[in-house]
Amino acid sequence: MTTKSVEETMELTPKHLPGFAARLETALPFSGIHEYGKLSALARFTDMSAAGVKLLFSHDRPPRHLNKFRMLTQGLVEQIRSHSGRGIKQNQLSDFLLYNSRSPFTESERFPGISSREAFEEFDTVFLGRIYVFIDEVAKENGINMFQDLQPGMLKIIIDRVLLLFSEQKADLKSKSTKELVKSTILLGQAGML
Question: Quick check: 153 and 86 in contact, CB under 8 A?
Fold first, then answer.
């Protein structure tokens, strides 16, 4: 082992803001890691023991050594990408976990000005059902099965974008331009570009 690699393994994770454990918990659902099993999953990412990972939560702190923290964030980014299709960057996740910077997971920051929850609350249940059926019909017209042909998590992103369209532009379900916008959204989602 060279001196440089020893120094790299001894480099400490920078100081962080309180709430690290809560922010880490925020990332887990997007990665598909469940409450039961999170210790062993995170231990695999970091080469730490499950007891060591448990300390991250109980002491509200990241791993002491920077290389372990980098392994944690890299493992989570890869897991999030494969599970939910979100293409977040390692430095985004690191900044969020350490410094509570802009969350890569909140809808309101992905779509400034409105969240999908606000859009959802704006419409009644019957209209929401018609939007979901409309999205599915447009997809089928274009040979896309919304439940099989999309990356995991992409259906929710498509629905969020279409709800945003209806909320901001008061789009009409019978309009040809609305159908084209929904078609474009589905095709972009299928290509992983949303």
Answer: yes
Question: In terms of pTM, does the model score above 0.90?
Answer: no
Strand partners, 12: 65
Q: Which residues pair with 65 in a beta bridge?
A: 12
Other residues' Cβ atoms within 10 Å of the Cβ of residue 22: 11
| Residue pair 58/20 in contact by the 8 Å Cβ criterion | no
167 neighbors 114 (Cβ within 8 angstroms): yes
- Residue numbers in the chain where pLDDT is lower than 50: 1-4, 107-116
Torsion-angle region of residue 19: left (phi > 0), alpha (psi -120 to 50) or beta? Answer: left
Let me know: does 27 contact 94? Beta carbons within 8 Å: no
* pLDDT at position 72: 95
